[in-house]
Amino acid sequence: MCDPRSPSHCLDLFDKLSEYIDGEMDEAERREIEIHISQCVACFGCLESLRRTIALCKQAGPQTVPAVFSAKLQTMIQHIQSAP
Fold first, then answer.
1. What residues does each domain of the chain span?
2. What angle do CA 56, 61, 63 make, to 5 degrees?
3. What is the model's pLDDT at position 42?
4. What pTM, to 2 d.p., does this model score?
5. Which terminus of the chain faces fewer neighbouring Cβ atoms within 10 Å, N or C?
């Protein structure tokens, strides 16, 4: 079970959730995550939230970015690239 006073294991797991969902890890690591998630309500909630977010993004499909946003983004990128 997780110790709420020491969330380092949960933070490590959080960094690996995308790999877990995408099936991009070895069986031992996958099993370790599954054991942790079965015992940690907070991590289980994070995993389910990430899964729902992915499903919603897939449902939405491709969207056109508004021209104003695109222009602002390009300006920001140019500014970052020209910074020393």
1. 8-82
2. 115
3. 87
4. 0.63
5. C
